[in-house]
Amino acid sequence: MNNVDLVSFVSEQARLTKKDSEQAVSAFLDGLRSALKRKEEVNFAGFGSFCVFERAARKGRNPKTGADIQIAASFQVKFKAGKSLKDALNPKK
Q1: What is the reported pLDDT for 82?
Q2: Coil, strand or helix: which one is 92?
Q3: What integer is the mean pLDDT of 15-41?
Q4: Does pLDDT of 93 surpass 90?
C-alpha cells in the first residue's frame, strides 16, 4: 500500500472526499514525523509504537574496495507491533 492507496482507503472508509482524506493522511504523517523529530515515543493502543534510538558510530567496510570506513552515528526509528496487530497477523487456529 502506498500513499495514494491509503488516501483512497481512508476516503472510502470514512466517507470523505479524496481531498479531505489526503489532508487527513498528510496531517497524521506530519504529526507522527514531528513527534519523532522531538524524540518522543508515539503509541497507538493495540496497533503498536514508534520510538527513536541512536545508532552509535561504527566501523564498516566498503564492499567494492574492501577499505575500512567510519559510519557516522545516526538516529533510527523502531516500530513494535501491539498485541491486536500481532493477533490480526497471526490468527489462532
Answers
A1: 94
A2: coil
A3: 96
A4: no
Q: Is the same domain home to 34 and 59?
A: no
Helix (H) or strand (E) holding 34: helix 18-37
CA dihedral sign, ordered 43, 49, 50, 56: positive
Q: Are residues 52 and 89 in the same domain?
A: yes
Regarding whether 31 and 58 lie in a shared domain, the answer is no
Write down the pTM of the prediction.
Answer: 0.78
Which residues constitute the domain of residue 31?
1-38
Instruction: Read off the C-alpha cell for 24.
Output: 487527513
Q: How many domains does one find in the chain? A: 2
Q: What single DSSP character describes residue 59?
A: E
Residue 43, number of CB atoms within 10 A of its CB: 13
